[in-house]
């Protein structure tokens, strides 16, 4: 070893590069070569650390209010809801009694809860299928429309602009047995036998509720598909036209694979729409006839608000919350795998 290497404490042999050898903590005083752990390196580390702290502070200033609102209005109520589900809180008593898992045990044998689950799943299935595939078909039609395109798109989107309350009241008027527009029109056409109590008949009420949801939400889901269709490169259509591909082949080979990300979003949003079906029921049927149209959301409202069983209602809410997360996770996972395979 040379003298310079012995002074620097380098353990490398011969003319080996000192940057790859092991050096002692003491730095060379007379070594003209740049040191890997010199004063400049420490300054860079200090500046980088200061920049990281500034970025964290800026992020907290920008995102802090949103995080605080989300925690206060979503996270905290979720924990409080689970805590109340372990009590017999009525909504009025200041000191609810802790009863453990009794509410969940009662839930397992609640016939009305299972009836609400069945109706909610039935409506959710119709809503998911219609908003996922029916809206896709309508979006392709609107995308290919060449005459009055803006007007037609606006007419389909207009019902979504209306509030749920207005839409529900409109359908309630349409379904009125004596003065509703549907039955009045049927009588004017001489089809008296076809008149129905559309929201009072257990056979027709579920489908009328579905038609209300479909009419009010179709424009929104269709708009998402139309936006995705307009993002497809025109070169793909031109290449398909040159190859002589028909409309079905274009849909199967180009449009459907490109629409899969939006299909995933629409299916999840439709699932949430079906599970949270509540204001339409409150305005139109109030769960009737005979609890035939009571959804889970309306059943929670019926328990907690109308019957002063907030603790039991919180237990129902928590079970549905966990189930919704599980269903949505499975749904997104399966659709993501489908996107990758295509």
Tell me briefly what this model is.
By secondary structure, the chain is mainly α. The protein contains 13 helices and no strands. Helix content is 70%, strand content 0%.
The name of the CATH superfamily of the largest domain reads MetI-like
Q: What oligomerization state is this entry in?
A: single chain
Question: What is the average per-residue confidence, as pLDDT, rounded to a whole number?
Answer: 84
Shape: flat
State the total count of DSSP E strands.
Answer: 0
Structural class: mainly alpha
The CATH class designation of the largest domain is: Mainly Alpha
Q: Under CATH, the topology of the largest domain is which?
A: MetI-like fold
Explain what this protein looks like in three dimensions.
The protein is 70% helix and 0% strand. It is built from 13 helices and no strands. The protein folds into two domains: 1-30, no CATH class; 102-341, MetI-like fold (Orthogonal Bundle), CATH 1.10.3720. The longest helix has 46 residues, at 39-84.
Topology (SSEs and partners):
Layout: H1 3-8, H2 39-84, H3 102-107, H4 111-144, H5 149-161, H6 164-175, H7 181-188, H8 205-230, H9 234-242, H10 247-275, H11 279-284, H12 296-306, H13 310-341
Task: List its traits.
single chain; 342 residues; mainly alpha; MetI-like fold; 2 domains; 13 helices; flat
């Amino acid at each position: 070893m040379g003298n310079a290497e012995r002074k620097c404490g380098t353990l490398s042999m011969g003319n080996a590069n000192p940057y790859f050898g092991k050096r002692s903590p003491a730095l060379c005083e007379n070594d003209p070569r740049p040191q890997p752990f010199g004063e400049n390196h420490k300054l860079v580390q200090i500046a980088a650390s200061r920049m990281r702290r500034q970025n964290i502070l800026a992020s907290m200033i920008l995102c802090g209010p949103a995080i605080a609102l989300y925690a206060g209005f979503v996270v905290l109520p979720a924990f409080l809801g689970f805590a109340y589900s372990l009590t017999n809180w009525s909504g009025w008593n200041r000191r609810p009694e802790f009863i453990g898992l009794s509410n969940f045990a009662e839930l397992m044998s609640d016939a009305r809860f299972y009836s609400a689950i069945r109706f909610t799943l039935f409506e959710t299935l119709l809503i998911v299928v219609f908003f996922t595939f029916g809206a896709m078909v309508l979006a392709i039609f609107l995308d290919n429309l060449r005459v009055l395109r803006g007007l037609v798109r606006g007419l389909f989107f207009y019902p979504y602009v209306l509030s749920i309350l207005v839409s529900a009241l409109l359908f309630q008027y349409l379904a009125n047995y004596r003065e509703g527009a549907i039955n009045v029109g049927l009588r004017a056409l001489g089809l008296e036998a076809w008149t129905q109590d559309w929201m009072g008949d257990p056979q027709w009420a579920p489908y009328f509720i579905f038609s209300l949801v479909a009419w009010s939400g179709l424009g929104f889901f269709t708009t998402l598909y139309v936006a995705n269709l307009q993002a497809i490169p025109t070169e793909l259509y031109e290449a398909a036209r040159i190859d002589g591909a028909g409309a079905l082949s274009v849909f199967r080979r180009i449009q459907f694979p490109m629409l899969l990300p939006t299909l995933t979003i629409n299916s999840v949003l439709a699932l949430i729409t079906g599970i949270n079906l509540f204001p339409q029921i409150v305005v139109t049927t109030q769960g009737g006839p005979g609890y035939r149209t009571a959804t889970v959301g309306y059943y929670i409202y019926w328990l907690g608000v109308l019957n002063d069983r907030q603790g039991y209602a919180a237990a129902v809410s928590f079970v549905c919350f966990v189930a919704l997360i599980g269903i949505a996770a499975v749904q997104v996972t399966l659709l993501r795998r489908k996107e990758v395979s295509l």
